[in-house]
Amino acid sequence: MTPVVTKMIDRIKFSLFSPEMIRKISAAKITVPDTYNDDSYPIDGGLVDPRMGVIDPGLKCKTCGGKLRSCPGHFAHIELVRPVIHPEFAKVIFFVLKSTCYSCKRLLLSEKEIEELAAMIESEAEDELKTKTKRKQTHCPRCKAKIPEIKFIRPTSFYKDGQPMLPTEIRDWLAAIPDKDLRVLGLDPQYSRPEWMVLTALLVPPVSVRPSITLETGDRSEDDLTHKLVDIMRINQRLEANINAGAPQLIIEDLWELVQYHVTTYFNNETSNIPPARHRSGRPLKTLSQRLKGKEGRFRYNLSGKRVNFSARTVISPDPNISISEVGVPKQIAEELTVPIHVTSWNIEECKKFILSDSYPKAEYVVRPDGKRIRVTPQSRDEILSTFGIGYVVERQLMDGDIVLFNRQPSLHRISIMCHVVKVVPGKTFRLNPVVCPPYNADFDGDEMNLHVIQNEEARVEAEILMKVHNQIISPRHGHAIIKPQEDYVSGAYFFTKHDTEFTKSQACHLLAMAGITRLPAPDRKDKYSGKLLLSMLFPKELNIKVKSKLIKTKNPEDDPDALVVIKNGIMVSGALESRSYENEILEQIFHNRGAEEARWFLDTSTHMLLDVVSKHGLSVSLANYSISAEATAEINKLLEDMKREIEAAIVQYKNKTLERSPGLSLRESLEEKIMQITSRARDAAGAIVEKSMGYNNSALIMAKIGARGSILNAIQMAAMVGQQAVRSKRLSRGYRGRTLPHFKKNDYGAAARGFVFSSFKKGLSPTEFFHHSMGGRESLVNTAIRTARSGYMQRRLINALQDMVVAGDLSVRDSRGMICQFLYGGDGLDPIKANVKTEAPEEIKREEHEA
Amino acid sequence: MVSKKGFIEVGEAVGIIAAQSIGEPGTQMTMRTFHYAGVAEQVPTGLPRLIELVDARKEPKKPIMDVFLKDEYASTYEKAKEVAKEIECTTLEKVALVEEDFEEKKIVITLEPSELEAEGVTIEDVKKKVKSASNFHVDINENVITIKPSSASLRSIRRLTNKLRQLHLKGIDKIKRAVVVKGKDGKFFVRTAGSNLAALLKHPKVDGKRLYTNDVQEIAKVLGIEAARQALVNEIKQVLDMQNLNVDIRHCRLLADAMTMDGEIKSIGRHGLSGEKAGVLARAAFEETVKHLINAAVHGEEDRLIGVTENIIVGQTVPVGTGLVKLRMKL
User: Fold this and answer.
1) Which of B117, B150, B170 is at the close of a domain?
2) Is the N or C terminus of chain A more exposed, i.e. has fewer CB atoms within 10 Å?
């Protein structure tokens, strides 16, 4: 059971440790620069001293008595014989040294200036301080002593008037600065005295932070941090020995410098101007700073993102027969995942059944009211049942009707994670209704998705209300449907509602039954039923729509009976549906007028019906669909010849310098511009020829026109010609000097030489055309790779900058500090989801109503 | 009218929704550049332009202006061309060959009469300008101007040459090129490469009310932050529209409002909005982790755990949406 939260973290204070504090919290003083002895037992006073906690199973922590799991670990410390500078604070130290007087240890400001600064608000004071410290002063305004010139060489060296300063000297200087002056510098002396930035005692993290790993050979391999700490200890001891032996100052300073190096790399092994400390193998060590930083660092990898239990991942495959809000979960996965059920007087009998069961829906664990978890086994079963009652929690296997979250990466928007209802199915893949593909941006070419089982009631309720699939039908991005039928469903809708589609009574009954409708309307075409009538059975009464179809087959729209989609009071009057009317108009209106549940019902039933329609109607494309007549081919060839001639003419004009110059362009650029115009005109002309030759009985063309799949451009490239290839939006030009390939003459600006592919995909490309085509293809591949990286980073920045913006009680938008960003959300307070609502019938329909 | 049901709900995490709505289509955007006829090639559009806007760069990579003219100049091409010529900034380099002669230690400027005419600059003008720009002995000979600098160092000659090449002869500073374009309404306007809002607003032949520039920072400087906010909205929306990406205007408005809420245009990223967030942990989790932690310790900073990231880090409910609601129990 989840424990009741009684305390929350309210705030976190950041500060520096004073040496006294370090010694106080230290569980052990490290005295030996080694880890384990020959019996592989931790050495007392060594770097894995058992007082710091234990990582070997079976041993006990000498501080808290806890074992491997129960001991949180305790800090220890190293006494540094000579102080060293904390490299990360060196810049702050420099700033403090520069701002204070060497003789009187006070700020280089007069008393009046200090008071002025103290009175200012923080940010202003900071700027003011910067300008004041920058000014050149030769003498202290208080004690009139000469100010020495302080130089800082990164990472840790300081010079006073050219003489190197030892950390001891710096520490003494910093220690003498009064608290009052530090406050002016922005330091909080209670929490961070500058002398604490010069280390005399080094905090050693517990072993649990730097666990050693035992290799298969039985050898121990220590963590990078432990290695670094051993280095520090070793040199620190050598320094101590040398000092005690009265070694010459030079040797002492060398060793001191070495301790400084090790401490520097211990904190940050990527410090500039310093060679990184390396492992024996030559790999740079990962020290403290590296552990926190970057994508794989503690913050982004472990704190902002967390690993979870109760989740599953596998390949997805389509299943149009389940509801859009369902997800098919393989039985194998359902058996592995569990849901906690709180036992009440209403479900106690059911829960007992789970405990007693030996097969699929069975209980895996029982949690007693005292919090103890017991695994349900044939042996433990009787014992559990003897005390079993209300207040227990049963963790049973996943079953039909359970609420889960379903997700596909990359999770670019909130509809990448939605709440589904479990449907246990055979097989090994998750099943997904193809209608929910667009929000996840999923397809079934091997995509994998993740599933998370919700573990408590509160979360379950929130997920159901906020994240349920049908509540996400309208995307907040543009206020239009994002969960919508695509491809074959659209084709089905088109064929179903075409003016000449009719069904017999038995066919009609069958289709309606597919949608679960048991009422048969009166036939509208003598004894037959039109597709429009049957589909209208799914529309709510108040549905009124009037839109132009995307596919108009005749020159004059009035001649095409399918050109105008009209739905009056829930009955389809004319027109054939295509993507716009079906996916957007109808669906969105139902969603807004009737609510999410009804919209879900419409999606489920209409897709079931249309699936049957399209499978019986039949829809296929083959090479024949992209074959055009001999006349059309001749026409295209002529078109290409004309284009070639036109380009040649332009080139001649260019060479004669009679070509008209476009404003702001050189003659050469004008030529390129002109040729690009000519080729794109040729492409459009080819499109018209192809369209004409394919005819409106061609399923490929119908699909392209109604927005189901493919485009006219695809047809042109397959049937007529592939067209102009481009790199950086320009005709191909690079490769050899003055030409793309040695097959062409130098400075040939003709179509073929500059990447125009005359062949169609069906005909096949010539070698040079193939090469040109792959030049263009290469660019688009490279661009895609760059684009994903760049847009991913942009989105991360956007999210980070805007994530705290929330609508406040007065509909203003505020960030977490309470600062107002917008006085009224979006300028009008409207929700993008609900802003496009068309609750009223189109004007024309209303007028007609009125007249009738 | 809009029913009350259409209002946004209190507590909705509109910031995240806006960020996702603008960021998600990023993968679908092209990287291609747009060709503004005649003015500037390769004006960034799509993703690069969006990043440019969000970064709040000091100047766009290719500043562009659309200068609409007062009616009397907008009717014919010739009249508009006249204004364009007037606006266009002409440098010496454009009308003359500027060469340095290191042996003789002199600079030779050879004027091109045809170019002079095209740009509408007289020889006398040039001579006067060159004279005042260089304080040395200037020799004028028909179309050739020779300057003999007194100081003999080669470096100073090179410096003077470069200065002379950029010598501003006429027109408005920063307007590198100006081309007349016929608008959709049949009237002519001038499109320029380079942007100088302040100067063009004052120009007597220009309809200042309709002046357009894509330099948002300049708008902020000249017209103020509210104008810049609106310009940002327009630019973001335009970038998305050009890619046929449908994004609700409210998301663009929120982004623009967030960028301008402090009275200056702040970039999205560590140097702008994200770098000034309240929470230490939130900043550390974004970028420059160590720097933020060190500074927090030095200043004895406190993280009050009021943001989203901070609460995720410590494992508490996030102060957004349903996480905003609290129950107070009477004990």
Assistant:
1) B170
2) C
- Chain B residues closer than 8 Å to A12 by CB: 280-281, 302-303, 305, 314
Domain covering A311-472 in this structure, CATH number: 2.40.40.20
Neighbours of B189 (CB within 10 A): 24
The B residues from 273 to 292 touching A (CB cutoff 8 Å) are 273-274, 277-282, 284-286, 289-290
B96 assigned to some structural domain? yes
**CATH number for the domain harbouring residue B202:** 3.30.70
pTM value is 0.88
In whole angstroms, give the CA distance from residue A322 to residue A451. Answer: 17
Give the list of residues 6+ apart from residue A836 with CB closer than 8 angstroms, or none: A479, A480, A588
Q: Which fold has domain A488-617?
A: Enzyme I; Chain A, domain 2 (1.10.274)
Closest residue by Cα to residue B259 from A801, A795, A830, A805 = A801
Decide if A797 and B54 are in contact by the 8 Å CB cutoff.
Answer: yes
The answer to whether the peptide bond before residue A155 is cis (omega within 30 degrees of 0) is yes
Nearest to A815 by CA among A828, A832, A797, A800: A800
CA distance, residue A434 to nearest chain B CA (Å): 21
CA gap A200, B213 in Å, rounded: 60
Domain for residue B79, yes or no? yes
Query: Nearest-CA neighbor of A310 among A338, A334, A331?
Result: A338
**Cross-chain residue pair A664–B316, CB shorter than 8 Å:** no
- Name the residue of chain A whose CA is nearest to B323's CA: A462
The CA distance from A68 to A58, in Å, is: 7
Residue-wise pLDDT tens digits, A568-612: 888 888 888 888 888 788 898 889 888 899 999 999 999 999 999
Contact A186 B289 (CB under 8 A): no
Residue B4 lies inside a defined structural domain of this protein: no
Q: Are A453 and A421 in contact (CB under 8 A)?
A: no
Q: Are A473 and A834 in contact (CB under 8 A)?
A: no
Q: Which domain holds residue B154?
A: 90-170
Collapsing DSSP to helix, strand or coil, A474 comes out as strand
CA A522 to the chain's CA centroid: 53
Q: Do B200 and B77 reside in the same domain of the chain?
A: yes
Domain with CATH 1.10.132.30 in chain A: 623-781
Token digits of residue A657 = 């310098």
Determine the residue among A6, A7, A8, A12 to mutate to test chain B binding: the one whose Cβ has the most chain B Cβ atoms within 10 Å.
A12
Tens digit of each residue's pLDDT (9 = 90 or more) over A125-177: 666 666 666 666 777 777 777 888 888 888 888 888 888 888 888 998 898 88
